[in-house]
Design brief:
The chain is an alpha+beta fold and 137 residues long. The protein has one domain: PPM-type phosphatase domain (Phosphatase 2c, domain 1). 23% of the residues lie in helices and 34% in strands. It contains three helices and eleven strands; from the N terminus they run E-E-E-E-E-E-E-E-H-E-E-H-H-E. The strands form four sheets. It has a four-stranded antiparallel sheet, with helices on one face. It is flat, with a radius of gyration of 16 Å. 11% of the residues are buried.
């Protein structure tokens, strides 16, 4: 079976401060003011084998302001097993963590997420590649 690809695409118009974003299988978080917005991804990958499915990739459009933050991610962080019961970190765990650390500089957020991942994983093996990319406007 041909492999598909999970990805997120963002288009930023610097003249109008407009962000247009769509995502295939990978959710995106947007921090606007004190609100952390969870942008669900489509349930379809790009490419791969498709049996009579019409794929719909919803476009989300936002007006961006200075200090807004955008977080792209793969599923590696949230799917990692760990913690006291050896369970997945989950998207809800990452959402809570991002809400707590979003006021920090991007460098401090990176450091916190790295330490938190190591703490969560403990002695368990890392099960997947990991990407969390933050952009501050």
């Amino acid at each position: 079976m041909p492999d598909g690809m999970d990805l997120s695409v963002a288009l930023v118009d610097l003249n109008t401060s407009t962000l247009s974003i769509t995502s295939a299988m990978n959710p995106v978080f947007l921090k606007k003011g004190s609100e952390l917005i969870y942008l669900k991804a489509s349930r379809y990958s790009i490419g791969g084998k498709h049996e009579d499915h019409i794929k719909v990739f919803e476009d989300n459009v936002f007006h961006m302001e200075k200090g807004d933050k955008l977080y792209f991610l793969s599923d590696g962080y949230v799917d990692q097993f760990g913690g006291p019961e050896g369970k997945k970190y989950k998207i809800s765990g990452l959402k809570k963590t991002l809400q707590e650390i979003s006021p920090l500089s991007m460098t401090r957020q990176y450091e916190y997420l790295s330490r938190e991942f190591d703490r969560w994983k403990g002695d368990l093996d890392q099960i997947d590649d990991i990407l969390i990319m933050g952009i501050e406007f």
